[in-house]
Amino acid sequence: MTTHEDNSAQDGFTRVPLEEFYDEDEMSRTQKENSTNIIVLTNTEQDLVNSVFERLRTVSPETLAVLADRLADLEKLTLNIAHFPSLKQTQEQGSAVRSMNTLVEALLIRREGDRTLHLPSKAILGKGFSVAKFHTFAAMEKIATSSNFPDALLKRLRRACLGILFTIMAEDVYLSLLDNETIAISIREKIAYELIMLWEHRSDEKVIEMAPVLDAVWNARRNLAPAFGTMVGTSELLILSMAMDDQWCRFISSRMGNEDAAMAMEEFLFGISWEEIQKVKQNIYDKKVSAIDSKEAAHILGRPADAFKPKTDVFEPRDFYLLYSVRRDNARARLRLNLPGPHYTLEDHYMRFILETQKEQG
């Protein structure tokens, strides 16, 4: 261990250089665009970590030291990633010139299959950083929960975990929207630019805007037992929307007339695939009944009787991403094979709504 690391460990926290931080109130977008650093911790995350470490200093110094080492490893990881060329720099590679503009052009080329080998090394490595950061904050949340930290601090930690998770998810959403040729090219160019900035800094302003809404929507859905009934989803949508903000309500009112968005919402509300929804609807039609309950729906789909009970147990943000990834993969498969059902997820449609609304507002 170096002298610097030893001093940091004694202090209980490995300090992250302030130039690695990003906060809109202190660093303008122009400054961010000129920077090539991955943001290890935002100012909000830094304050949160300090609060956790201050409590652990008296409760469990050993645990504090482990978490401090984790954060030090994150910073070392960003330093290694920084050795790879900035995605905003212009470089000559033999007779070819690579720049941010050529990267945008490459991203707008529609490709079938996995894009991994067509993405910059910094993008792939940076995603590993985001996953490692998520694990670090998830570990902090579990430690704080088991140590009976105040509810307010636990809520901040859970919000931070979801914020990091949404940043990981945003990359999937951006890549999906890039291939959607029903979106204006000017907006897809903006999406490509936003994606490059996410790769460069591993922080995204659109995610900061989306996170509170998706947090509320996902948590509301988690506590919602689908009242399968007639399989229309009206009651679920009303319950879900009652506690939401104006932006979500504008999204609902303006986009639910879109067939793909409506089908994506249906999948999200019932927590089953579009194909399974059709199976349940067909069963209702065949039996000539007006509605069914959740137990019967579970039986039709070959699931346990309690499969559709609301999930109100331990906070586990990974479950959110698992459910999202199933809907994402199903949507991609339908799009590729030109099958009926939603070709984009609810999250895709919501991000598109935000981007198009911002363009309309100038």
Distance between the ends: 52 Å
Question: In total, how many beta strands?
Answer: 2
Form type: globular
Mean pLDDT: 85
Q: In percent, how much strand structure appears in the residues?
A: under 5%
Helix content: 55-70%
Largest sheet: 2 strands, antiparallel
Number of domains: 2
**SSE topology string:** HHHHEEHHHHHHHHHHHH
For the largest sheet, list the strands in their spatial order.
1-2
Low-confidence stretches: 1-34
Whole-number radius of gyration?
22 Å
Class based on secondary structure composition and strand pairing: mainly alpha
Tally of contiguous helical segments: 16
Give structural notes:
- This protein folds into 2 domains: 3-203, no CATH class; 215-360, no CATH class.
- The chain is built from 16 helices and 2 strands.
- It has helices spanning 3-11, 29-34, 43-59, 61-81, 100-107, 121-146, 151-178, 185-201, 205-222, 234-242, 246-255, 259-270, 274-287, 294-300, 317-337, 346-360, and strands spanning 91-93, 96-98.
- It has a two-stranded antiparallel ribbon with strand order 1-2.
- A hairpin with a 2-residue loop joins strand 1 and strand 2 (96-98).
- Residues 1-33 are annotated as: Disordered.
Q: What descriptive keywords fit this protein?
A:
2 strands; 362 residues; 16 helices; disordered N terminus; mainly alpha; globular; 2 domains
